[in-house]
């Protein structure tokens, strides 16, 4: 079996080993920890000056604040290094990833870049031989026991670890404006039936029920992954990414029908708005709900809102008990112009200090297992609890479940579907995307 074929299997093992952690299992039951690397050591001399160019798409409230907090730690340690904050706006890397690909192809890598753990990291960059392993950074900092084995697994390939994770995000969250719900005597919906009942009531009261900002089509894919999970449950959902669940089957069809119905309750200008502009509609009470990853939590807090006071949160309809996860990480590209400075950056990213500064602002939980819980708000504490007790499923929209090529093909199907709401042709397109990715027949 070649390694590409092995990857879907590995994803499954990750879930199994994450569950082992969740259930209090001591060890990585599924995959061994990587052997010490024979690749060049990632160690470096401590930075004494020069530049550090960090590439990401974190420009919105919350995400930019978290990044700045990590820059603050770095600058405190290495005041003579000039940080170049190379951001390309557009949620989920919708614009940044193309810019990064062009730079990497031209042999002009940044010193370090944001990359989703899982297929995005491995299939796009590691297999293509564009990265240096970071295993030795983990070893030198004694981090191998500081991360859940399942997280280490999604960063690993060929016996090495290939990036440093900064967080765990949850994708399947419904955020709502508490005042709007209270004013209309409503409670947060937990099933699709409840969702549509609440949506009808809100529409009757003149409030847009569901805010969507899919000027980057990934946000439509993001909503749809929640609907898929809510329609079929975690086992079938996970099977979508390894070919064991049929894309032509009744469950995918029903998810597409549900999505079509949901679009009747969405703001008319959704195609013109970004994810954070959609969140702002909820903040302003112009819309009541949005289904978005928990970077929306970081956004709400950045504009002065407090969880459980101004905004509430529940798992998206039908998904209680499952945590759709994704993880942001930073890697070390081959040929990084300021390699020593980059290694020091990765050391900040993977440290407890770095993660406990970054995540409370970002709206994510630390990838490390030893984060200081008291620094995290009520929502984030609930996310920590859910991550350690729920079923875990990988996010499609954010690089965990499928290769970048598959995600791009899926996004193309969603572009058409959101415009024409043609369920049959969308289903055909999704089945084709799976086949083109080499995962389905
Ligand atoms: C995701 C990323 C998050 C957040 C979000 C919106 O892909 O993992 O950290 O930045 O996009 O920009």
Could you explain how this protein is built, in words?
- It is a single chain.
- The longest helix is centred in the middle third of the chain and has 22 residues, at 218-239.
- This protein has 17 helices and 15 strands.
- It starts with a helix and ends in a 5-residue tail after the last helix.
- The strands form four sheets. Strands 1, 2, 3, 4, 7 and 14 form a six-stranded mixed sheet that branches.
- Helix content is 46%, strand content 14%.
- α9 (218-239) runs antiparallel to α10, α10 (250-262) packs across α17 (423-436) and α16 packs antiparallel against α17 (423-436).
- It has helices at 3-22, 63-77, 96-105, 119-126, 135-140, 149-154, 178-183, 192-204, 218-239, 250-262, 275-284, 295-302, 339-350, 352-362, 378-389, 404-420, 423-436; strands at residues 51-56, 82-87, 112-116, 131-132, 156-157, 160-161, 164-165, 169-170, 173-177, 208-211, 287-291, 311-315, 322-326, 328-333, 391-394.
- With 441 residues, it is of the alpha/beta class.
- It has two domains: 51-169 and 327-389, Periplasmic binding protein-like II (D-Maltodextrin-Binding Protein, domain 2, 3-Layer(aba) Sandwich); 170-325 and 396-436, 3-Layer(aba) Sandwich (D-Maltodextrin-Binding Protein, domain 2).
- The site of beta-D-galactopyranose (GAL) has 13 residues, from loops.
